[in-house]
């Protein structure tokens, strides 16, 4: 039920943003967001509301770290 | 998002699994970790994560899906409401097929009740604005991820002067059942895979008391296979070191303090109450009902109805399943009398339900 989907902000109009993922567009209320966002940012959208910003840099860093630590070569 | 594929990278997943196996090899007693989020349950089945893990690590499912833990009494009230001629029921789709004491919303819709599936509670407010002669009731169930969206709909209705919008609210909050399960002597949980998007709202700090009072490790984990496995690795590491603290694996979304604005909306619109959980019973302070100042939007107060007498379903083990005590395969009705097409219990209805996930993806 509360599966939040990561979507990219493509435009902002007052309290609402238009968001998109894989060609699917969805309007999301920004009423619940307590972080600044701008066009191009990723947000988690749940039931018509952006509930949280998704930190793309952090996602990339997490992945890189995982790759370093868990790569098959390193683990033998 | 292009990197969601990367979080499913096969080599990475296998590397993680191998590392967990190395760390736990030869443990005399398996480590038992519970996920309390239906989306985690789904991911674990969908990606076959159990089969990747060594026998020394066991994953069990807890009370993770808000549809599953909603009791018959709530559905019976919703069904009574939908039988009123001027009422339109709006809901997320999963609720429609959950059996109440003697009917379901789906059956009522087939008989002519006006029941509509909406994507957002805001859609229900719009529907009310367009149908002033009707009373539009939204079925407000869900955990801390969903509750603020419903709070937002009530605030929007108020701001727009929409007075024919109502919410039948029975939201649940997560940390309390985790505390109850931690205190249960029959259940040995060595760590929690904490819900991802619930935690985006309440913040990872909300689990600190569990670590302190019950000495149980908690890791907030994302939904991708690498997320879940990395979360498991962090739990294993804590368990082996005899530690119990909160860690955030899902740091790309979840912060320690959570979402202050959403928390403020919850505090404004709702009041905690002693909520009934299917199979678990009434847990003190574990639910959110509409606060007195928004009583005009409360369907339970504003639209009185006669609700039928409560009947529980014979033989269904949902209660035990939601407490992590039995697996769906232990239920004699599983796959026979009870399937996703004709569910006996709630755990088989929602796609996030443990029985439904087990049915779809098998062991
Ligand atoms: S996100 Fe919420 S509803 Fe969805 S599975 Fe997790 S706790 Fe359950
Ligand atoms: S298989 Fe069906 S009857 Fe058995 S516990 Fe699951 S939902 Fe209930």
TrEMBL record, chain A:
Signal peptide stretch: none
One of its Pfam families is: HupF_HypC
Q: Record's PROSITE patterns? A: HUPF_HYPC (PS01097)
Q: Which InterPro entries match?
A: Hydgase_assmbl_chp_CS (IPR019812), Hydrogenase_HupF/HypC (IPR001109)
Q: What domain of life is recorded for the organism?
A: Bacteria
Similarity remark: Belongs to the HupF/HypC family.
Protein name (database record): HypC/HybG/HupF family hydrogenase formation chaperone
UniProtKB/TrEMBL annotation, chain B:
This protein's superkingdom?
A: Bacteria
Name of the featured protein: Hydrogenase formation protein HypD
Q: Give me the gene this protein comes from.
A: hypD
